[in-house]
Amino acid sequence: MSNATTLIHSIPVDPLTGAISVPIYQTSTYVQEAPGVNKGYDYARSNNPTRGALEKIIAELEGGKAASAFASGLAAIDAVVKLLESGDEILAVDDIYGGAFRLFTHIYAKFGIKVNYVDTTDVAHVLDAINTKTKLVWLETPTNPTLKISDIAAIATIAKQHGALLCVDNTFASPVLQQPIQLGADIVVHSATKYLGGHSDLIAGLVVTNTVELGEKIKFIQNASGAILSPHDSWLVIRGIETLYLRVKEHSKNAQIVAEFLETHPAVDKVYYPGLKNHYNHEVAVKQQSGFGGIVSFTLKEDTEAAAKIVVCNTSLFQLAESLGGVKSLLCHPATMTHKSIPAEKRSNAGVADSLIRLSVGLEHANDLVQDISHALHIVNAKTKQKDLV
Ligand SMILES: Cc1ncc(COP(=O)(O)O)c(C=O)c1O
Fold first, then answer.
1. Ligand 1: distance of its center to the CA of 171 in Å?
2. According to the model, what pLDDT value does residue 250 have?
């Protein structure tokens, strides 16, 4: 059966009524026949059939054994870190999502959890940095925002040899393009706010595990800490997943066209897109992904915040907003928006230059998107030339 068919039919028909859309169980509690005698549900923080349906679907799509749904991607990341104890260390990709960096630094450092950031695109760096205290290896691949690609299978082997869990933030690829558990990861997290939801109308997070036992630990944390996903938002994510395959394929197709256009533009310096042959680790992306996704980042020849601001303020189809993965194209300036919580030096070492612009390429026609970005680049080019003449 094709992946698209499997994906669509992973969404169940309601066994009670035959409803083709998963019902939204908007309830806080469940009536019991006697104390502890119930239909498998007692309180909605612990269990909810709509959330349960989503958890089952994502576990299946990622090829995992269990899943838990959270109120945000960061709540999902937080639940994974709560598997650790004081004194444990995390080895994380250096170009990490700014919110994860903030969580690790400003919340978990004070509880005695240390994080070592390394450029995981080179497996040798992981081997060098891993130690006996490393209990969790944290990858994003592709990363946000420079689309760094790390070899999941190779790093999973190293993590296993050192008794550490490997968690992959699979937000950018989605299970349509990449299934980290199949490549040896123990845990996958998602900001379901992005491609899984797909319509820029919700905030949600997911954790998928490769074993039932690990899944039970996450479920315990989900219930104990309480950052659950609401029934309605669970339903919205399920509804998003119905078209995930179609959307991600189209996002990828459009992004490739936009990236190839940017490569040729005189105002553009570097283009980051795993689908470009000259992208670092392109061959690893080809090996572990079935497509390259909808995010493209680029820097300008005039590498300044001011030049980047001219571009991001002069597009009309690409709208200036944080977030990504929705139907409508968005763009942002990571240094002053999504990644401002990372200190400037760390940020620039990880490749987040002052002029870096991140595009979330949507589902509009690719030609219109190219024209839109071309117009904004023309303005920045003209302004730079004017400045040179003064
Ligand atoms: C790669 C990645 N992981 C996690 C998150 C956090 O997700 P959320 O905003 O749903 O909390 C984001 C948000 O942008 C992200 O880009």
1. 7
2. 98
